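for the writeup, i need someone to sanity check this before i put it in the appendix. the sequnce is what the collaborator sent (i think, or maybe the updated version? ugh). structure was predicted straight from it, no edits. if anything looks off just tell me and ill rerun, i have time this weekend
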Amino acid sequence: MANDEGGNGTWPEPTVTRRRRYGYDLLPGVALSLVFSIMVLWQTIGTFEPTEPRAVVFAPWLGRAEVWTRVVAADGRVVREGRWPFVIVVEPGSPDFSDRVRRLGAWMELDPKISADCTAQIAP
């Protein structure tokens, strides 16, 4: 072997050992992404007046018909649908709409003016 030093088939030890940093190089980027995500959620998730329209977000695997059924069961009136079938803008029919829709599986309620994902089409 041409590259081994003693001819015994082993490679020489490096003179400078570098400590491996398994993923620590990514830590600043991950931390920054987490901070920005929290800031966006802080701005979009809010407290609403009992009659104020809001975008309700359900689980992504629910279809449009299931989302409509759950909103109507929680006494909500659909204002418009979102771009995705699991996002829907509703006007509450009762003061306890938020509690009722969360018991029926809603993940969160967003301000429809801020959330650009809620302006796709007008519901019939």
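The CA atoms of residues 81 and 88 lie 5 Å apart. The longest strand covers residues 76-81.
thx in advance!!
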